[in-house]
User: What shape does this take?
Amino acid sequence: MRTVAVVGASLAGLSAARALRKQGYDGRLVLIGDEPHRPYDRPPLSKEFLAGRVGEADLALEADGEDLGAEWLLGVRATGLDRADRSVRLANGRTVRADGIVIATGAAARTLPGSEGLAGVHTLRTLDDARALRDELARGGRLVVIGGGFIGAEVASTAYALGLDVTVIEAAPTPLAGPLGETMGGVVSALHADHGVRLLCGVGVKGLSGERRVDAVLLEDGRSVPADTVVVGVGARPCVEWLEGSGVALDNGVTCGADGRTSLAGVVAVGDCANWYDPHTGSQRRVEHWTGALERPAAAVAALLAHGATEPGVPRPPYFWSDQYGVKIQFVGHAAGADSVTVEEGATDERSFLAVYRRAGTPVAVLGMNQPRLFTRWRKQFTA
Assistant: This one.
């Protein structure tokens, strides 16, 4: 291969570029990113950066002196992929022809219909999002977080520590039931109540009120929750619109195998936009976690450089962590399909425990709250 284009310049794209060089690729390498920023770390955006404990320089993902010998095309969006001449079309009219293409365009935060143009309403996905939200939170007042997932919970925790009055609204009866199961989802989400943060579950959002600036969140049951600032944390959609008509199979992202190979030869996908085949579950799944964006590109790059001649390995089970209200939450594995979950150490009411999920007696997932050492020992069983 003479040229490889990596479309997406965040962690997954950077990891793919690093893997290319590490695996011996010495040809032309082009990294394309729609944001103007060099690669930066996203997990601190909802925590340390939002709280003002770290600055933008601390988010940099590139090591001092690191030189990938790459061409960086930043602040320009990919608009199409032409499979006939193997070129990536860009919004500025330029095209980049490549022998190999790594799709790493990630995902974008979902928005609330009708919130466009209303001041005080935010999503949190990018550095620019975090800058704007940090300025808002400095004003104090009442914050309403729509969505009780991990990002929403982390923002609520940060805002609580900054002294804001915080309410979290979750449409599902139990927050985090998807990734953690109902029982443990309820335990983890109880951290809100422990700290005086209001949690309203089982009710949807009808809309927002306010003329130029939001002043309340309107619920489907008729209630109104006053708000000076609103954060919408209702998930993310894969950024794959630019691939429509390209021949790359799309279904909740880019459909690909366990090694990241797509339906087009010489094209692989990594990161939040990749809907990988997971041999653990026998199904396709997108893994929107930091560790997946860090680790999985190596397998995709190996498949790309070998022109698909390699046998895909078994990817490591998903691992993620969250820090909320001073509590470290860690999870590895697949909660879906588990027929039991037992607390092996500590106690749930003390918010310090380790729980093991099992299917037919076999461990399939582990959750830890303030149990980092014990959790690490258990995690090694899943990644050995």
